[in-house]
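Researcher: Going back to the complex we discussed earlier. I've cleaned up the inputs and rechecked each line, so this should be the final set. Can you rerun the prediction on the complete assembly and write out the structure?
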Amino acid sequence: MKITKLTTYRLPPRWMFLKVETDEGITGWGEPVIEGRARSVEAAVHELSEYVVGKDPARINDIWQVLYRGGFYRGGPILMSAIAGIDQALWDIKGKALGAPVYQLLGGLVRDRIKAYSWVGGDRPAEVIDGIRMLQQIGFDTFKLNGCEEMGTIDTSRKVDAAVAVVAEIREAFGDSIEFGLDFHGRVAAPMAKVLIHELEPFRPLFIEEPVLAEQSEHYARLAAQTHIPLAAGERMFSRFDFKRVFAEGGISILQPDLSHAGGITECVKIAGMAEAYDVALAPHCPLGPLALASCLAVDFVSRNAVFQEQSMGIHYNQGAELFDYVLNKDDFKIDGGYFYPSDKPGLGVEVDEELVIARSKDAPDWRNPIWRLHDGTVAEW
Ligand SMILES: [Mg+2]
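Model: Rerun complete. Updated structure for the full complex:
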């Protein structure tokens, strides 16, 4: 079998699908994207396609190494997201060629189901109580919300109190009937992270995500030393070589590689294995579309240390399309009692509604995150 063609479709809400065709009629799909820079990743996919077209799609390991090492310069969000989507599509082709789901090709199930969690609220953590009530009705008991709004390097006790008040309200409303993680979203610098984590501890969040930015990862071990709340990070790390520093320095209890950013299934299975060796839990990051999610699930179902799976249903970013809009076999991904179950469909198990993908890609918006500024006019982390 030979790879003949790579086609990209930028799609609402902020996604990109990749179709990889072969001379034997088997087609694989992947989702190479970095949110807000889809066109850059698209250019990278097409630039890399010269190393892919004409190759045997069965040789995923070799193609991955050529894409990673073959260009001298490597790593980072754009190149690793391009590789991720190509890698996902190659696993999809392999599964379809062999008539087996990807998790079977990776050694088979290590669990029967995986807990899903859901985002509540938007960019700003207000009005979450109603959101949680609604999601509880469809079976969710685990949530994530933004832990605070924009925060200065040193900020006021008013700002801290506002963040704490939202979390206190949630605990008061729901007691221990729910769990929730708090995403600091890289908005908080180390001095305020120390304060905020301390103030939030009494409300027992399940984890605190990106307590500081990944480029300040030397603070993870220091912050972990001051708190018993598990710290999570990983969506802005792009390969084993980024993650190894976090393992070596310690501090992260829940690792969140993104299957569409960190080199795809081939790389993330290895990252998951490294995490297991360090007794670190795995919770793949996934605020994206169905092919990214299916890739996450393939890794969750073969990784003992996977604890829960993010998914984007109803997320505030999903303007213009929802998680399963482009999927024909929606029922295979139905969340039952707050859990995802393995599908026995071959490959990634996603039957893509190609007609709809082509139609919607014609007017795809260029999604951007907002630019926030602090009260004195300096740019804030979003
Ligand atoms: Mg996050």
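Model: Worth noting: The first strand starts at residue 3 and ends at 11.
Researcher: Good, that matches what I expected from the previous run.
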